[in-house]
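Q: What changes when S-adenosylmethionine is included in the input?
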Amino acid sequence: MVDLARIKQIPYIKEIIKGDITKLSTITQLQNSLRRNGSEEKEMVVLADCSPNLTGAWITDRAKQIWLAEVALGISNFFLAEKFLTKVFQGEFFQELLKKIKISYKNVKSHKPKTSRKGSAEIYIVATERKNKEVQRYNKQFLLLDE
Ligand SMILES: C[S@@+](CC[C@H](N)C(=O)[O-])C[C@H]1O[C@@H](n2cnc3c(N)ncnc32)[C@H](O)[C@@H]1O
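A: The predicted holo structure follows.
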């Protein structure tokens, strides 16, 4: 698990990294953590519940939040995660993000859980069935990630 904030230990979470998902050094830390815990070779699910500090300037907040969801999609693509789930704020950037997710996943659905406040713009996207996994695995061997 990665978060900008320091998070207390959570049951069943093997390692919590305090870091910024937009930084390459954090992705390297995540990769090392997955290796240490023997998780890198397992089928992976990326769950992203990122939100920036809200300023109240709605367009800026939405743009930042969608950007974080896009970064999470990049991480999911890097690790060839089989499933990807992200929270997003609906608005002008939402359809673009959906299109990008559909490049990597066959099955993409959006869902507003009952527990989510009715007036809030948040919605969850659930993407399953990664496309072209073997081609991507082949391409990935040429990608070196380091500090
Ligand atoms: C809505 S909270 C969700 C936290 C957690 N899922 C929970 O239920 O307690 C959004 C979280 O996104 C984190 N966040 C925002 N920007 C981030 C970034 N660039 N890298 C990592 N975490 C980030 C914040 O620190 C915050 O804890």
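Observations recorded in class: The two ends are 19 Å apart (CA to CA).
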